[in-house]
Amino acid sequence: MICVLGGRSLRGVVPISGAKNAALPAIIASLLTTEPVILHRVPRLLDVETAVRLVQALGKEVCWEKDTLKIWGGEKLSSEAPAELVQRMRASFLVLGPVLARTGLARVPLPGGCALGPRPVDFHLHGLSRLGARITFIDGAVLAEAQRLRGAIVYLDFPSVGATEQLLLAGALAEGETVVINPAREPELTNLTELLRKMGAEVTWNTDHVVIRGQEELGGAEHTLLPDRIEAGTYLLAGAITGGRVRAVNAEPRHLFALLDRLSCAGCEIDYGEDWIEVRGAQRPRAVDFRTWPYPGFPTDLQPPMVSFLAIAEGRSTVTETVYAARFGHVEPLIQMGAKIQVSGSVQIVEGVGELRPAAVEATDIRAGAALVLAALAAQGVSYVRGEQHLRRGYENMEGKLRGLGAQIWEEEG
Fold it and tell me: Among 62, 166, 400, 403, which one is least packed by beta carbons within 10 Å?
C-alpha cells in the first residue's frame, strides 16, 4: 500500500512521461507490419507491459531499453489473443482490427480493465462489420473473419476513442477508402496518425470526419510519443490541492486548456510556455462546475482528481460525468476522508469542506487511485491507499515524482 503524510505544500518541477494512452495503440500498430517500429518516450507502466506481452504472444519480437521500445518480426501472426492479457486491459481489444487485416481471422476475448460501468465494444464491432468483417461470439470471445477488409463509410454515434483507433488501424490495410464520421479527436489519436503516416498509411483529418486510404502493406517507422496530459494534470492538481506551486515540464499546455480554465476559475494562478505549465494554488480554492466531454472538453480521466480538489473548495461544485456511466469509484473513499459528495445519476454535488482527514482507503481504478493520493496529500496526518497496482498501470514512478515535489510518501507491505 501507499502511505502519505499529508499537510505539506508541494513545490518544484516534475517531468512528464510519454502518454500511456498513446503508447498502447502505437504498440498495437506494430502488428500492421513485419518491419521494425521504434517508439521513444515509452513509460514503464503495467498497462504498457501488458501491451508488450500481448504483441509478443501474437508473434512479435520486442527489445525495451530505457524509454525506447523496438518491435519487429511477426511474419506469421497468431490469430488468437490470450485471454489472460486482454482481460487485464481494455485497450488490448485494439488488436482485433490489425490481426484481422493481416491474417483474415482474429479471435479476441471481450476486454477487461478498470470497472467504470458498461463500456460495450459495439462501436468497434459495428465499424469492422461495415468494413466487411463477419462477427460472431464464441465462449466469451469475438471471432472476426474477412478475406480482406474493404473500405466503407462508418458513422459513430459517439466519438469513441477506442473505436476511432480501431478503425484507423484496420483501415490502414483495408482495400479502398474508409471514412469515419464523428471520430474522436483526442491528442493521442493525432499521435497515432503521425505514426501510421510514417509507416506509409494515408490518413486525412477533416472537420467532421477522417479518411483512411488503405495500403497493400505498411513499413517500419521511428516515432516519439507525446506527453501524458493526464499525468501532467494530476501533478498540477497535486500542487493546487496542497496550496503549492508545481511546474510540469516536457508537457503540452494546449492539451490541458479545459483543466487550466477551471483551475483559474477556482482561484489558482496559471502560467505556461511552449513545453511547460505552472499552477500556483489558492489559499482556499473556490467551487467551480464542470462536465466531462470528449476532447477538447474536460478529460474524464481528470474528473476524479478534480473532485478531490473541489472537496476542499469554498462552496458547492456540480460535476457531470458524460463519458463513463460509473466513474465514481473515488466517491466513497473520499467521503471516508471527510468529503461531502452526493451522487445523483451522472452528477456529483460536492460541498467543500475546510479540510480532509487521513484515512485508510482503497483504489478501485487508476484515476480513483490518483484522486485518493491527492486527497491524502491535502489531509493532515498519515493516510493509507491500497490498490496501488492500479496506479502502477497509469503513473510512472508516482511516489518518486511526488517526493521530488516535497511530498512525504512511501510504500509499505499490507
Answer: 400
Kindly state whether residues 138 and 214 are assigned to the same domain: yes
Pair 236, 258 in one domain:
yes
Whole-prediction pTM: 0.95
Of 348, 372, 374, residue with least CA distance to 362: 372
- From 3, 114, 265, 268, the catalytic residue: 114
The gap from C-alpha 380 to its chain's centroid, in whole angstroms, comes to 30
Q: State the pLDDT confidence band at 413, using cuts at 50, 70 and 90.
A: confident
SS3 helix, strand, coil % of the chain, rounded to 5?
35, 30, 35
Number of domains in the chain: 2
Are 135 and 12 in a shared domain?
no
Domain containing residue 120: CATH number: 3.65.10.10
d(CA 195, CA 193): 5
Higher pLDDT residue, 191 or 354?
Answer: 191
Whether 3 sits among the annotated catalytic residues: the reply is no
pLDDT for res 112: 58
Cell 481494455, located at residue: 90
